[in-house]
């Protein structure tokens, strides 16, 4: 891990090819949070491809419109959702319809990391 960033709505673990984000319990993820993501990507992934991995260990909601803005991050090569929770996986399948880049759902974090590494190296 390169760095651990803590915000009032999430914790971000920065790695060389991907970022792992754990949202806090009960948060409603709104488009304004993309400003934080863009700042982080500009700082750690300037002109470098990366994958966003959301590790859904807590219960929270996502405004699907957020994906239209997230997809505009040019060097973002893919988006992964990690959860063992059935409801979170169903929600992720709906969210996937709003995102026009590779978007996968995984049960285990290590599976998502392997996918992210392959995706970054193939681009």
Task: Write a structural description.
This protein is an alpha/beta fold and 123 residues long. Helix content is 34%, strand content 29%. The chain has four helices and eight strands. The chain has helices spanning 33-44, 66-70, 86-96, 109-122; strands spanning 3-6, 10-14, 18-23, 28-29, 50-55, 61-62, 76-82, 103-106. The strands form two sheets. It has a six-stranded mixed β-sheet with strand order 1-2-3-5-7-8, with helices on both faces. A two-stranded parallel ribbon has the order 4-6. Strand 2 and strand 3 form a beta hairpin. The longest helix has 14 residues, at 109-122. It starts with a strand and ends with a helix.
Main sheet: strand order: 1-2-3-5-7-8
Rg over CA atoms: 13 Å
Q: Give me the CATH superfamily.
A: STAS domain
DSSP helical segment count? 4
Q: Which structural category fits the helices and strands?
A: alpha/beta
CATH architecture: 2-Layer Sandwich
Can you tell me the CATH topology? Transcription Regulator spoIIAA
* Helix content percent band: 25-40%
> What is the average per-residue confidence, as pLDDT, rounded to a whole number?
92
CATH class descriptor name: Alpha Beta
The percentage of residues in β strands lies in 25-35%
| N- and C-termini, Cα separation | 22 Å
Please trace the helix and strand order, writing H or E for each element.
EEEEHEEHEHEH
Largest sheet: 6 strands, mixed
Principal-axis shape equals globular
As residue ranges, the low-confidence spans are: none
**Total E-strand runs:** 8
Number of domains: 1
